[in-house]
Amino acid sequence: MKIRDVKVMLVTATIPPERRWTSDFGTATKSSAAFVKVETDEGVTGYGEAKGTPLVMKSIIEHELKPLLVGEDPTRVTYLWEKMYNGSRLGLSFYYGRSQSRSTAASGEVMCAISGVDVALWDLCGRAMNVPVFKLMGGAVRDRIKAYASAGHGRLGHIGQEFASYVAKGYKACKMRVGGMDHPHMVSGSRARVKEAREAVGPDVLIMLDAHGSTGVTDAIKLATAVEEFDIAWYEEPVIYHNMAGLAEVRRSTRIPVATGENLYTRFQFHDLANARAADVWQPDTSMAGGLTEMLRIAALASANEAQLAPHVWGSALLWAASLQLAAALPNYYIFEFAQAYSPLLTDIVSVPVKVEADGCVPIPQGPGLGVELDPEVERRFPFEGETEERLPII
Ligand SMILES: [Mg+2]
Known about the structure:
By secondary structure, the chain is of the alpha/beta class.
């Protein structure tokens, strides 16, 4: 079996005014995605999501990566990952691991592109062998995973009701946005909303906080101190992700576990995170950090460093499906992120329902590959509008 073609499909979902949400990033009005399709000469295809700028993903994958892939055996996934990452220095990588000739491959848009191709290759292998991807990773350690409701954009007076609605659906864990979205009262305003949330759900539901790196170290420590009494499961990106010394400072100042990782790439940046002793919970994103191949390595690193692994899963149904395959295969996959914001690209484009069950868990799809079938009409139903993610500014 040989790779015949690699294509990128671009889609956009518009968010109607009554379904929009607002955070420190502004108000979301539409979201777009880039789906990678790898085709073979035997008619087997695989799909993955590349979470970079859609038009950039199309350019990198169809013009830079495709020539490295066409004619190759798609089941040599690790080899193809090294070829995309290390380019002309592929031979050196067999001795030193990190020897990429293209420095841009180490992070950013190129790594997003490699991630999408890698996921599509795993999907393709599973389909060719008629097994789910988790079987290729050593088999299942579970058939369902505890999920947390990820949103919590509700303002004061609304956040309690929002969280209660998630608990009514079965969730036993909920995440809310804090910090920048309560500007200018980032400490007192966030504390009041966290208090309302805790009173609404009672003592037995996990509450996580996400500040999107919107505060500096001093305010982050003040906020952690102000909400410690409400039994917080983790405090995510209290400061900007690349400030690992600052994250470590926040971590040392509070008993609340610190989480980060949705903006980090490859095992090498997570190695830096471990060395900085900056986080208790690691949150790599499969469609950015290096695909499923690299997620297995990051997961091993997390285990060795006694960090909990709670991958970032805010994206389309293909990221959701790939992440569930990891949840099936990885013993240290702690909890599954289930985005609650209105998102047709999550809920309306695959054959398997995207849902949480009454016990607060998500079942792992058992079909071949990623376990889901992408709607063949997805491009027609969601025509691309040329925006990565349009958000109305907050000020
Ligand atoms: Mg986050």
